[in-house]
Amino acid sequence: MSKSNRQMKLGAFFMIPGHHVAAWRHPESAAEDVQQFHLYKRLAEQAEKGKFDMIFFADGYAINDKLQSAIEHTVTVRPDPLILLAAISAVTTKIGLTATVSTTYNEPFHVARKFASLDHLSGGRAAWNVVTSGQNAEALNFNRNEHLKHGLRYERAEEFVDVVKKLWDSWEDDAIIVDKKAGRFAEPSKVHEVNHNGDWFTVKGPLNVSRPLQGHPVIVQAGSSEAGIELAAKTAEVIFTAWQTIEEAQNFYKNVKGKLSKYGRSHDDLKVMPGVFPIVGKTEEEANEKQALLKELIPEKAGVGLLSSLISYDLSPYPVDGPLPDLPHISEINGGKSRFQLLKDIADREQLTIRQLYQHIAGARGHREIKGTPVQIADQLQEWFENEAADGFNIMPPYLPGGLDDFVEQVIPELQKRGLFRTEYNGNTLRDHLGLKRPLSSFSKEHSIG
Amino acid sequence: MSKSNRQMKLGAFFMIPGHHVAAWRHPESAAEDVQQFHLYKRLAEQAEKGKFDMIFFADGYAINDKLQSAIEHTVTVRPDPLILLAAISAVTTKIGLTATVSTTYNEPFHVARKFASLDHLSGGRAAWNVVTSGQNAEALNFNRNEHLKHGLRYERAEEFVDVVKKLWDSWEDDAIIVDKKAGRFAEPSKVHEVNHNGDWFTVKGPLNVSRPLQGHPVIVQAGSSEAGIELAAKTAEVIFTAWQTIEEAQNFYKNVKGKLSKYGRSHDDLKVMPGVFPIVGKTEEEANEKQALLKELIPEKAGVGLLSSLISYDLSPYPVDGPLPDLPHISEINGGKSRFQLLKDIADREQLTIRQLYQHIAGARGHREIKGTPVQIADQLQEWFENEAADGFNIMPPYLPGGLDDFVEQVIPELQKRGLFRTEYNGNTLRDHLGLKRPLSSFSKEHSIG
C-alpha cells in the first residue's frame, strides 16, 4: 500500500506507432495507420479507460536532417498535435490533452487562442508542452538559415509564455454576461488590452476567445538544461524529464522544487514526471523476448541516425561496432544539451560501442527503460514515487497499440491495488486530475489584493 | 425539376450564434454556448443530415477596433476554426470542413501541415478558405504597427498558397510503403525537398505529413476585388462572393470563369458560391415577423459599429438617422475594397440613412438576403443557379441553431424535390461532393509528362 494518500500522476506519451525507433516494424504495431484517426481514437479511449491524467504528443517542424535514412527506415510523418488532440477531445470526456507547440516559430496570439479554444471545447482538458525548436532543419522551413542559439531560444520562450498568459487573462472569468434583454453580451471593463511590448513580441490584445475554463491550460515543459530548469521553475506545472538512475532523478527533483519559492510558488505547484519506457511481460522471460525482438528490428542506418540526432553530432562516418569518437565539448552543442550529456555519460560509464548505444537508447531515447512483470514495473515506479524522485510518470509505450494495452491492462491494476493510482476520475478538468490550482487572472481584483 | 442533372453545391456558413449582428439576442439563439462543443456538434450533425457539401467558419485575429461597443453589444469571441473543425471531424463522417486561415500572419509550413493533418484525420474532408488580414487591430497583435497594404497582402497570399501546395506535394501519393519485413517505411526518391526561395518565404521542406488524401485540401476564396478575382482564377476551387442582384452575380460569374483558361483551368474547376442569408417562414407573414424581430434587436451602437467596420470608415460621429457622409475614394480604402463599393452602391441607390443601412446589412453583411416560404426561397436559389449566376450557395443562417434547422427541414426538401440538390452523399471526400478533380502532384511523373 501507498505510504500516504498521495497518488501518482500518469501521462500516456505517444509516439506513433511507438517510442521504439523500430516500433513500426513490430508485427503488432499499427504502422499503416499513423495518419488515421481510428488509431488515435482507440489509443485515447484506452488511455481514458486506464484513468491516465493525460495523453501527450511530442512534435517537430521538420524531418530530422541528421537522420539521412530517416525517411526510408523510420516514421517521419506525424499529424499536427493540436489538430489531433482537438479531434480526440470530441471522443473523450475526462482525459487531459497535452500538445507540444514550439515558441521558436510561432506567434503568441495564435498559440494562446488555439489552446484557449481547445480548453473551452474540451471542457478544461488542454495542456501546452512548451518547447523551443533546436534543429537546423526546422529553421530552414521558416525563412531562416540557421536555428536560434540556445540562450536566445529560451529568452524568446520565456517572453512567449508571458504573452500567452496575459492573453489568456485578457477576459476576466466573469466578463461574459449574455443579458439578451439588455443587449449586453459582455462587460467591457472586464476585458483588457494586454499592451505587451517586449524584446521579441509586441501584442496589443485582448484575445478573441474568453478566459480558458482552467484559467490557464496546464503548462508542461521538458528541457532539463540550466535555462530549461529555470524556465520550468518559473512557469511549468508539469515537467517531463529523462533520468536513468534514482539518484539523478532525486537530485533533479530537489533542485527544481527548491527553485520554486524564488518565483512565489509552492512544492505542489509543479509535478515532476520523468519519462518511462516500459516493456511489460506476463513473465520476465516474455519481457526479455519483447525487448530482444525490438532490438533486432532496428535498421543499422536508422540506429546510427537516431543516435546522431539525439547528441546533435553526425556518427555516420564512424565504425558502428567501435566506440564513440571524441565528441565536442557540451558548450559547442546547440541542440538538446541535457540529452547530449546524458548519452555521453551512459557511453562512458558502460563502455558501449555505437551499435550497443543505439540499441540501448532506441526505445527510451535517454529515458528510463523498465522491463519485467507488472509487479516488477509497479515496484520500480513506486520506489521513485515514494522517494522524492517523481510525482508521477510519462509512460512511453514501445509500440502501439499493444504497448499501451499491456500497461493499461496489467500495470495500472497493480498500481491501483497498491493505492498508488486512481480507480476513477474525481474531477473533470486536467487541473482537477493533477491537483493543480486554477490560476487567478492577473487582471482580477482578488489577484491585485492578494 | 432541374433543367439538367447538374445539382447545386451548398455550404453551411456559420457565424455563432448566427450571422445577424443581433442573433445572440434572439430568444431561440444559443448565445450561452458560443464556446461549447455541444452546440457545434449539433450544428455539424444537422448540416450533415441536410447533405450540405461543407460547413464553413470565417475568422479574424482581433476584436474589431472599428466597433467600439463590440465587446458589450456583440459576440466577439470565437474558437479557432481549425481546432473547431478538427473536433467536428471526429463526430461527422461525410461533410466537408472549411476553415478560414489568413496568409498574412501565418507561416506556410504550419498551414500546410495543419490542413494536411485535418485532411488525413477526416478522411479527405478539409478545405482552406484563403484570406488576407485587413484590419489594423490584427496587425497590432502580431508585432506590427499597421497592417500590410492591400496589394502586398495579395502578393504574399499568392506566394503563400504556392508554397503550401508545394509542401502538400512533397510526398508523392505512393511514397509510403510500410514494408515491415524489409524495414522500409517510405521510398525516399518519392519524398522531395521543395526548396522554395521567394520574396516572402524561404522553405526547404519536405513536409512531415504525407500527401493529403484529397491531393490538396479544397482551396476556397472570398475576395472579389480585382486582385482577389485574379488570385481566385489562378488558385481557388470555390469562390465565396457577395452579390445583391442576379445581374451583378452573372457579371462576376462570367468574369471569373472567363479568366480560368488563362491559368490552364476549365469551367468546372471553380465553383462560384455566393452567400445567401435566408429568413425562412412557413408563411410570408412568419418570415416578415422573423425579419422584423431581428431588426428590432440591433443595439444602435452595434449597428453603427458594424457598418463602420464593413466600409472601413468610422461613422460614429454622424447622426444615425441622417444620410451617409461623403466617403473617401475607394483607392484610399485599405480594407475590404469590394465590400466598401457594394455598400456605398446600396446606400446611393436606395437613399438610406445610416440606421436604415445598418438594419439592411446587419444580417447578410452585404450578401443577398432572401426571405419567404421554402418554395419562394427555392425559387430564388433556382433562378440564380440555372442562369449562370451561381454553382451553389453558402447559406448564412440568421441565428443558430434555429436558422439552420429551418433551412434543413424546410428548404432542402424543396430543393431535393426539384432535383436541384442531392438526397444522399455519393462519395466520401469534399472533392467528391463538389465534383472537383483530385490534383496531380507537381512532383509526379504523370504530371511532368502531361
TrEMBL record, chains A, B:
Query: Which N-terminal stretch is annotated as signal sequence?
Result: none
Q: Which Gene3D superfamilies match?
A: Luciferase-like domain (3.20.20.30)
The UniProt entry's coiled-coil ranges are: none
- CDD domains per the UniProt record, alphabetical: Nitrilotriacetate_monoxgenase
Single GO molecular function: monooxygenase activity
The record's Pfam families line, in alphabetical order, gives: Bac_luciferase
Domain of life per record:
Bacteria
- Record-linked SUPFAM superfamilies: Bacterial luciferase-like
Sequence similarity: Belongs to the NtaA/SnaA/DszA monooxygenase family.
Q: What is this protein called?
A: FMN-dependent oxidoreductase (Nitrilotriacetate monooxygenase family)
